[in-house]
Design goal:
alpha/beta; nine-stranded mixed beta sheet; 11 helices; 14 strands
Length: 373
């Protein structure tokens, strides 16, 4: 088939993608433009998202193009909706479009990366200090205890806490011939681990800019012998920066799980994090509320030091699944310091029970999703 013929086939495939808001296919509605295919079978086109469109619409369009026989890859340039008046000057003269919040290139995950991993979930947060790494640690440990072959990739480059939480200080071994070396992940409590913390001295800071962060994440995905995994948990740094964008532009995620504490200063940042993942066409599989309620020893009184219900209210507002809440519990601090996840060291504690239940909810949520491409 000629390149023009392949472009026509891609266009026909895109006509089968219907916008649920308008009821029209995306080609007829004028949301697709510039469909082209080069001599290596790589397709590209522009896609205009409109206000109210579901973020999954771009993912559906990409999947339709990828399914066309002869197409080896797809790049989608997403045009996000402009704010009112964003492209007009006074008097109706055209102005250069202003950069809109969230206007980032659409992710184009590379095929074949982590092909042996069935499910990949990023654990993220809008701000630091909410217990994101603790949640990632315990979700991975719980999944492994359930018999799932599990890996944990520590993408928190500036604050790699996973080695401490798993009690690991070893250096990962390297295997393979010179020029094609592979890092062998360490294994602790049944979980395969990789972290920059394994490669740095304890007091050595990670001082690096965005491109270096992207390079490290790419190396952790391509040059680590993860093998076959049922589930990979990725512990992300807080915020909506280079690491998050590098991840979604490198590998196809099954979803992101957001961790927050109940107070507004945390939930407001998580709201921005949820919107960021939606902008880059990554589903949010749930929100977890941490540090809610401290039971006073000896009295049994529960004190909500950071408030209560903020994470659940946010999940309701954003139509995202609420996976559960974790109380403030001394067992969590002890487990983190001792390098043994709470679900293993104190399974009957209030936090241990809550974390196991959240782990079960996550596994159930993932079972209903289509397989990774």
């Amino acid at each position: 088939m000629s390149d023009n013929g392949l472009a026509d086939a891609v266009t026909r495939a895109l006509k089968r993608v219907v916008n649920p808001v308008t009821g029209e296919d995306v080609v007829t509605a004028g949301q697709v433009a510039g469909v082209a295919v080069d001599d290596r079978g790589r397709a590209r086109f522009e896609f205009s998202l409109r206000r109210g469109d579901p973020g999954a619409l771009v993912r559906q369009a990409r999947a339709a193009a990828e399914a066309v026989e002869g197409v080896s890859g797809v790049k989608v340039n997403v045009q996000l909706p402009q704010s009112p008046g964003g492209t007009e000057r006074a008097g109706g003269r055209s102005a250069k479009p202003r950069l809109q919040p969230g206007s980032v290139p659409a992710p184009t995950p590379r095929p074949g990366i982590l092909a042996g991993v069935k499910r990949i979930v990023a654990v993220s947060s809008g701000k630091g200090g909410v217990g994101k790494s603790m949640v990632a640690t315990n979700l991975a440990a719980h999944a492994a205890s359930r018999g799932l072959v599990t890996g944990l990739l520590d993408a928190d480059i500036y604050g790699p806490n996973i080695p401490t939480m798993f009690g690991e200080e070893r250096r990962p071994p390297v295997t393979g011939a010179k020029g094609s070396e592979m890092i062998v992940p360490l294994e602790s409590h049944g979980v395969r681990l990789m972290s920059l913390g394994f490669l740095l001295e304890r007091e050595q800071p990670a001082i690096m800019r965005g491109p270096l962060i992207a390079g490290i994440l790419k190396q952790f995905m391509e040059q680590v012998e993860w093998g076959r995994l049922d589930l990979m948990i990725v512990d992300m740094p807080p915020g909506t920066g280079d690491a998050q964008l590098s991840l979604v532009q490198t590998v196809d995620l099954d979803g992101a799980l957001m961790v927050t504490t109940p107070q507004k200063v945390a939930t407001g940042d998580v709201r921005r994090g949820v919107k960021m993942f939606e902008r880059v066409n990554t589903r949010v599989v749930g929100i977890v509320e941490n540090m809610c309620g401290f039971r006073v020893p000896g009295t049994g009184e529960v004190v909500d030091l950071f408030g209560r219900g903020g994470g659940e209210a946010l999940a309701t507002e954003l139509s995202v699944r609420f996976l559960g809440r974790i109380p403030l519990d001394l067992a969590v601090r002890v487990a983190g310091d001792e390098g043994r996840p709470t679900v293993l060291s104190a399974p009957d504690s209030a936090a241990g029970v809550a974390l196991a239940e959240i782990g079960e909810s996550l596994i159930a949520a993932l079972e209903g999703l289509p397989p990774r491409r």
